[in-house]
Every structure is written in C-alpha cells, then in structure tokens.
C-alpha cells in the first residue's frame, strides 16, 4: 500500500460535497485502505464554504490535511478553488468546476466576483483540470449530480477501476437517482 494520499473537497453548501466524500471513502475502504474523512461545515445552509478532508493509506493517524499537503483538491466552485489553493502540494492537481456561485458580499453589492480565476491559477503554474460539471450533470439528467460528475473526473487520477466506483454508487445512491448518477459519473470520467 502507498503512503497517505490527501484529497480536499471544497464547495458551497448544497452542492453535494458530502456525498462525494462518502462515495470516495467507501471506495478506499473497499480497497483495504485506512481512511479518515473529516467534514468542516461553515455556514453551509446559507451558501457558505464547505470543506471535507479525505485521507487514505496504509495507516492514517489524523483526518486533517495541512497547508501544502493535498494531492488533489476538488473544487465544486471557482472561488472556492482559489480560497483553498494553499492546501495543494506543489505537484498536486486542482480539479475545478467552472461553475460560479456568488457569495453573499457579491450578491449584496459589497464586493465583485473575481474574473478569470482558473486561468490565473494556471498562469501561476497550478495543474488545473477544469470541467463544466454543471453542464454535464444537466446532460446526465439532474443538475444536482454535479458532485458525481466531479467524482468521475477525479476517479481517473486515483487509479481504481470504473466498475468499482459504479458498484459503490449503486450501493449508496437511492434507486430513483441511480441511472442519473451512473450517467453523471461516466460523463465526468470520460470528460
């Protein structure tokens, strides 16, 4: 088994970050890894920042990821990608949804949403995998499956076979949403 791998999932309340971390955790446990998942809820019910730490390896002692330790950051929203970037390792990967969700100061006119966030991060040398996960989720049949689209994109970088992810989705997601989520995963996986 490998050293401890660190994945930071960042987004805004209501985007499904917690389901993504649950599916990921199940996959790693099924593969025989020690897994720690820690969820940090900001003002999630009001569109605030939500962060989940997922760590797996032979033996994981702490659920917390320190600055500069994340192998992968999965950002469900552009501004969250910028906000949590300092947690990414120098050779880490930022998987970023191109979706923009205005925070309260922007909605109230007290601030402006920064322009070209992902392009600016790429110019700094960050390895950015950007994807319009919302568009793919709509194609899958439900805009709320954005989280599973992003999981599909991430799965390509984790080295576990697609069928294992599909089995975990089947055992976790409610029956009525199953086809949409499998479709969403595949659209992300093949993006």
Describe this structure in words.
This protein has 191 residues and is of the alpha/beta class. It has a single domain, classed as Pyruvate-ferredoxin Oxidoreductase, domain 3 (3-Layer(aba) Sandwich). The chain contains eight helices and six strands; from the N terminus they run E-H-E-E-E-H-E-H-H-E-H-H-H-H. It has a six-stranded mixed β-sheet with strand order 2-3-1-4-5-6, sandwiched between helices. Helix 1 packs across helix 7 and helix 5 crosses helix 8. The mean pLDDT is 92.
User: Could you say how many structural domains there are in total?
Assistant: 1
Q: Main β-sheet, in a few words?
A: 6 strands, mixed
Total number of helices = 8
The CATH class assignment is Alpha Beta
Coarse shape? globular
What is the radius of gyration?
16 Å
Give the end-to-end Cα distance, rounded to a whole number of Å.
Answer: 29 Å
Number of strands: 6
* Mean pLDDT score: 92
The strand line-up of the biggest sheet is 2-3-1-4-5-6
- The CATH architecture can be named as 3-Layer(aba) Sandwich
Class from secondary-structure proportions: alpha/beta
* N-to-C series of helices and strands: EHEEEHEHHEHHHH
CATH-wise, what's the superfamily? Pyruvate-ferredoxin oxidoreductase, PFOR, domain III
State which percent range the strand residues make up: 15-25%
Helical fraction equals 25-40%
